[in-house]
Design a protein that fits this description.
Blueprint (H helix, E strand, L loop, with lengths): L1 E6 L8 E6 L7 E11 L1 H7 L16 E8 L11 E4 L2 E3 L5 H4 L11 E2 L18 E5 L4 E2 L6 H4 L5 H11 L7 E5 L3 H12 L3 E6 L5 H7 L3 E4 L3 H5 L5 E6 L14 E9 L12 H5 L4 E4 L5 H14 L5 E4 L4 H9 L6 E5 L6
Parallel strand pairs: 10-11, 10-13, 11-12, 13-14, 14-15, 16-17
Antiparallel strand pairs: 1-2, 3-4, 3-8, 3-17, 4-5, 5-9, 6-7
Helix pairs in contact: 4-5
The protein binds NADP nicotinamide-adenine-dinucleotide phosphate and zinc ion (ZN).
Length: 348
């Protein structure tokens, strides 16, 4: 099947228009015309080969919302005309313990990511900065009626990546949660933690973000570069979700964890620098953890929750041709709080 999108051809070249082939749909496939695709900082990391595993040409995009235009004969949950979502994964082994438990993101054989990956046949996967996608039904989520489609796109990565740890660590109306970094993931973490009833604090290095953070639901805002402000929240948090994309010092955050508290890293991938001091961990049975996106059933549960509570992302809709400028702005943390590409602009 012919497809059209925008691709990166190397770590240093801008994204440009790109014609490519997608597989012809199989019996269990859903074919989706893409309406909106969110722009994740992971797209930028991978387009620029920050993780040293990039496959070019690369069509990024894993926050995909569209309309179903065809279904294979064994598809049961979707019909033509339905709205559908595709996140970071399009396949996994489906037989290991993790897959059987609905945690396909931790598939023992490794999940097949929506782009920058090879499918079971060894063909490259291409993401959502494109007109159309063909995906196995098991990896497609239903969009509740009434949810704004563009605002819902970021739930497929920014949303589920913060929802999954909030659920795993049982956040509820008695919890004290903090979020490090107010970007795409950070603003969803605030909204979702608040919707679960938690008391929410934002740690930010940016003094100008307080009003926005309060509007998004933060109860307290702490400037992480100010030691006096950091000292006011000693021993407070049950869970800290750290969304910062680059290496940074975790040590100032450890004393702010309550006994048994956990700081879960979802942003930076790589060796922790400077080293983490074990003393505050041991002295308070505290944990440093990590978390990767979330499973498909969990993603559907998130959409159902957001449909019920009216939670979507705060977005800036952009045209496809403005993607390279959007990446530069993302690097400067100049986005409130997620870019979403309107795919109707693809051929402009
Ligand atoms: P983003 O929109 O660019 O937000 C990142 C935020 O981190 C910024 O707004 C900024 O907030 C803060 N920050 C602190 N130091 C920074 C620095 N040196 N450069 C840039 N920002 C800095 O990014 P995102 O889309 O939320 O993604 C965050 C990270 O999560 C990325 O590394 C992405 O690859 C990763 N990710 C992981 C998963 C997973 O499954 N674990 C899934 C999706 C994304 P303040 O100004 O408030 O400090
Ligand atoms: Zn993402």
């Amino acid at each position: 099947m012919k497809a059209f999108g925008y691709a990166a051809h190397s770590a240093t070249s801008p994204l440009v228009p790109f014609h490519f082939e997608r597989r012809d749909p199989r019996a269990d496939d859903v074919t989706i015309d893409i309406l909106y695709c969110g722009v994740c900082h992971s797209d930028l990391h991978q387009a620029r080969n920050d993780w040293a595993n990039s496959i070019y040409p690369m069509v990024p995009g894993h926050e995909i919302i569209g309309r179903v235009v065809a279904v294979g004969p064994s598809v049961t949950r979707f019909k033509v005309g339905d709205h559908a979502g595709v996140g970071c994964m399009v396949d996994s082994c489906l037989t290991c313990e993790a897959c059987e438990e609905g945690e396909e993101q931790y598939c023992r054989c490794f999940p097949i990511f929506t782009y920058n990956a090879l499918d079971r046949e060894g063909a490259p996967t291409y993401g959502g900065y494109s007109d159309r996608i063909v995906v196995k039904e098991r990896f497609v989520v239903k969009i509740p009626d009434g949810l704004d489609l563009a605002g819902a796109a970021p739930l497929l990565c920014a949303g589920i990546t913060t929802w999954s740890p909030l659920r795993h660590w049982n956040v509820n109306d008695k919890s004290k949660v903090a979020v490090v970094g107010l970007g795409g993931l950070g603003h969803m973490a605030i909204k979702l933690a608040k919707a679960l009833g938690a008391h929410v604090t934002l740690f930010t290095r940016s003094p100008g973000k307080s009003d926005d953070a309060r509007r998004l639901g933060a109860d307290d805002i702490i400037l992480s570069t100010d030691a006096d402000q950091m000292a006011t929240v000693g021993g407070r948090f049950d869970l800290i979700i750290d969304t910062v994309p680059y290496a940074h010092d975790l040590n100032p955050y450890l004393p702010t964890l309550a006994i048994n508290g956990t700081i879960v890293l979802v942003g930076y991938l790589g060796p922790l620098e400077p080293p983490v001091d074990s003393v505050p961990l041991i002295m308070g049975r505290k944990s440093v953890a990590g978390s990767l996106i979330g499973g498909i059933a969990e993603t559907q549960a998130l959409f159902d929750f957001c449909g019920k509570h009216g939670v979507v992302s705060d977005i800036e809709v952009i045209k496809m041709r403005d993607i390279n400028e959007a990446y530069e702005r993302l690097l400067k943390a100049d986005v409130k709080y997620r870019f979403v590409i309107d795919m109707a602009s693809l051929k402009e």
